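Re: beginner question about structure tokens

> Can someone show what the tokenized structure looks like for a real chain? I only ever see the sequence side.

Sure, here's an example I had lying around. Input first:
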Amino acid sequence: MSRLFPLFYLALFYLPALADDLSKRTENTVFRDRVKANWLLDGKTFWYRVQTGPQAHEYVLINAETGKRQTAPALKELGIIAGDSKTSTLKLDLHPTRRTGESSGFKFINKLATEVDLFWINQQGEHIRYGSIRAGAEREQHSYEGHVWLITSPTGEQLATAEAEATIKTLIIDGKGLTKARDEPKKPVAAGKSPDGSCSVTSEATAVPKRQITIVDSSPKDGLQPKIKVIDYTKPGDALPKPQLVITTAGNEKIRVPKDLYQNPFTESGHLDVTWSPDSSEFYFNYNQRGHQLYRILAANAKTGTVRVVVEEPSKTFIDYTSKTWRHWLHQSNELIWMSERDGWCHLWLYDIKTGSPKHQVTRGRWPVREVLHVDEAKREVWFMASGLKAGEDPYHLHLCRVNLDGTGFQQLTAGDGNHRVEFSPNRDCFIDSWSRADHPPVHELRRSRDGHLVCELEKAGITALLAAGWTMPERFTARGRDGKTDIHGILIKPANFNPEKKYPVIEDIYAGPHSAFAPKDFNRQLRMHQLAELGFIIVKMDGMGTNHRGKAFHDVCWKNLKDAGFPDRKLWIKEAAKTRPWMDLSRVGIYGGSAGGQNAMRALLDHHDFYKVAVADCGCHDNRMDKIWWNEQWMGWPVDESYKHSSNLEDAHKLQGHLLLIVGELDTNVDPATTAQVVGALQKAGKTFDFMPIVGTGHGAAETPYGSKLREAFLVRHLKP
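And the corresponding structure tokens:
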């Protein structure tokens, strides 16, 4: 039977102070860990302010050509005045995301002459990179009301912050912060004006009914009576518009572009992006066929509307259209740089635009290109981040690389054994390389762009005070996956008062979303996992098969199979770790996760209850037919078939064994909260005993609220008995 938390659970809220005050105890205990360069007008010198102690800092002046370093407690002692640098005087509110409201977003318009970088500031204050916005380009970014975003220059200068509101806003990046543009129409129409002004392209699409979901706000802030919220929410299998491109000539003639090569596009808005050739003879547009197994870049003749294929990318499983369909047009040479996984790894290819055929592969090897940073058309070279380059190093670690467009001259320009972030000087002659690992504090180096030569070391972070406060260093561990040959990478976290003579229950923090990988690769406090460890647990986190960044075969395990969630690899990893760690008690293994991780956590007790005994599932996507269309059709395909049922926690609820706590925010607009309610109903029908806690007035990520976190801790303590 289902039950709400009994009153005696309140006693468990008085958990050890060691866990509750970990955040306060470890705050302001890591020094020399950040470098933000402020470049002077000569382009050869920069300064930064570095924290050297709890209440102490110094200023550092660096000559980027020689590596000469000068330090002083104040700027004026180094002969620097604020006007000498290109640093904005704008004071930014860099507070972390404090709440998750309804689905929302931004449209950013970059009016600057350089690209800018976009970061989400998460609940822990960490800056999560979301790529770049090119000079003069526009970018639509999904978000949630209350989420905080940061925009920086390529050299790391903080330009602006924005907090998402209830409605989507258009914001202009102009170097003076963010200027709010007039609200965009709710139903934008695709349009493209040719460079010579002689014709334009628009989209026509028959309107299709939009699915809506209803959410009840039981306790609105502005009154007593509940309110109903109705939002548009397209789900897998729903009808989508099928746009028709129409050319309008200078003489107002209408030319309908034949649809033979773009009959069934995946688009919720009916919008097809258009890019014109410089001579206005043709325009290009994308066709992502619904089901994500065919992606085309098409060219249409501006005078006749005739369509031809420039790039055709088929896949027997799926094309990762959200992160691996990058391209760069080289119109002067009639070439296109295109990203593809056709050889099993994410690499760059050079295409002939006119013939629609590949000229050659630019990058190759059993490693993926992760992000393209810059294309130098004059020098015909491309700068990018890649991982998996060096045997013996964590294959997720990012390194800066450069290669010529003819495929020659490949260079890895960063060296340290860790995950690298780079910031270039204004003239790109050098870059600041900041790297760390989950078990290695940050190191900041100045390197020469031409060959990666180390000019000087800038800073090495100190964590003596952090360790003295009772924080324990994560331990990296690697074990073979289900195939007996592929390494699975993850970390373990022990409590501060760890005693190897004792036995500790094990808890896995899981998120198996195929869109990325999630075991920590950068150094930070990882407070959520450490706070749980302080209660007497060993916390583990790893990336099993079906997650991203390890090649197409590794990724394809998730195809029509989200219930797999890498569990065969995860269990082997934990068992292998325990062979040499007798203090890991595998008779007491728990698991928790949110969103896709909530789906995963419940699945552990449906299919793997021989191993996992306790699970906390927050705001779970428990049935992929109930969740948003773009994420679920990407991995589960279209049309909706039996594979959706086979991965459904709803369908398999009768298989539950073990202790399950379901948490959901009643105002969740990311994952339809009805999917949790339906799982509750299925468990009740099956006569299962479990715990259920809806959290009033809360959206997605309810278990990360103070109350939700305490519920999770209490449940895990009660059933795993650390």
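Each token stands for a local structural state, so reading them left to right follows the chain. The longest strand covers residues 584-594.
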